[in-house]
Amino acid sequence: TVGQTGGRSGRRGGSSDCAMSVGGAAELSARPAPAGSVIVLRGIALSAPALLLFATLQAAPAATVREIRMTSRFVPAEISVRAGDTLRFINQTGGPHNIQFFVDSIPESARVLLEAAMPGAKIGPLSSPLLLGEHDRYDIAVPALPPGRYPFVCLPHFASRMLGTLVVVP
Length: 170
Hints:
- By secondary structure, the protein is of the alpha+beta class.
- The chain is about 15% helix and about 30% strand.
- It has helices spanning about 50-60, 110-115; strands spanning about 1-5, 20, 25-30, 40, 45, 65-70, 75, 80, 85-90, 100, 135-140, 150-155, 165-170.
- Strands 7-6-9-11 form a four-stranded mixed β-sheet, with no helix packed on it.
- A hairpin with a 5-residue loop joins strand 2 and strand 3.
- It is globular, with a radius of gyration of 24 Å.
């Protein structure tokens, strides 16, 4: 059932803000609903803010965990992610390892977001802790970074060019 319940009258379907079309699809006008309005969808009442949140959650792609294995290199060396995904760095062999983003190649606004997303005792700016044991892991929840390329390195293996690139896509 699709209808609108006014804040005072309790009438259903009495407004032109919400109507049924042929085939049962709801049509909503661009005109804002009166304060206190509740939209009923299949027997579930939702306020306007709750409906907006519900629509946003339904449209968002599911977050994924993307694993990067750390040996004498990052595998894969380049990984594409979206905001909300989790990067999981796993020390397989050849440790100690860490992840350090290149501070000078990342805009200040993105640096702040990335720094806040990197948990634990860091060994420097935009750097993870050292992963010492085999199978140690480090997770980063990708924040809402601007789309682009974010290079990183394993600091203990910088001389051997253990480099990677995080590619953030919209």
